[in-house]
Write a structure and sequence with these properties.
alpha+beta; four-stranded mixed β-sheet; 55% helix; 10 helices; two-stranded antiparallel sheet
């Protein structure tokens, strides 16, 4: 297995602790990776993870796993160590603490980033985000058939919520032209009662016409 790794990342550290606990550390090649150079996403990381984030784990089968939560669950399942219990009560306790710890870490990272951002760097930051959105849509387009064939689950829910946010905040971005197969799948899922009942609206209950900057493809 290959792990995009950095000694400074708290989420990489989380995976490393789990690797130690599961006894799988010797099966992983830790590759020193930076997520960006002068705010431009690192293509070596983007090749495995369209979000351009670390940690990213590439399994022996070539499957790229991203987000420390997914990686840690994969390692725990593979080793059978029980770091994430199967019983509902203990499992929910661990997931709740994980969500709290990860959320706190996210806040600290964003806070630190904003405090150290160079003056006039905002355009470079948004350009990096735009490239990650494009890469994420390209991957989802390539996997649109798999999304359609798999039983409806939390993965599809998360993807639909992301696409809904694109429509709400960037209604003119044209993502459907870039990802037509994904768009066809989304249109079909939009008729699902749970999806139709939860369409994002603004605070007054109207259509989402609030934009957060320009995003085009």
């Amino acid at each position: 297995m290959k792990l995009h790794w950095s000694p400074r990342s708290p989420f990489v550290r989380k995976v490393m602790i789990v690797l130690h606990e599961t006894g799988l550390l010797g099966q992983v090649d830790c590759v020193r990776s930076v997520v960006a150079v002068h705010m431009t996403p690192n293509p070596a990381v983007m090749a495995d993870n369209p979000l351009g984030k670390i940690p990213t784990l590439v399994t022996g089968e070539g499957l790229a796993l991203f987000d420390s939560r997914v990686i840690c669950e994969y390692l725990d399942l593979r080793a059978g160590t029980g770091l994430l219990p199967s019983e509902p009560g203990p499992r929910m306790a661990q997931l709740r603490w994980q969500a709290l710890g990860d959320g706190l870490t996210d806040i600290l990272l964003v806070w630190r980033t904003e405090l150290t951002r160079p003056t006039g760097a905002w355009e470079a930051v948004t350009d990096g985000w735009r490239s990650k959105v494009r890469a994420s849509l390209d991957l989802l387009e390539a996997e649109a058939a798999a999304l359609a064939e798999a039983p409806f689950g939390l993965g599809q829910v998360a993807v639909l919520c992301a696409l809904g946010q694109l429509d709400f905040r960037w209604p003119d971005c044209g993502w459907r032209a870039r990802a037509p197969q994904l768009a066809a799948w989304e249109a079909l899922q939009a008729t699902r009662p749970s999806v139709a009942a939860t369409t994002v609206v603004d605070g007054e209950g109207g259509a989402g016409d609030v934009t957060a900057g320009q995003l085009s493809f």
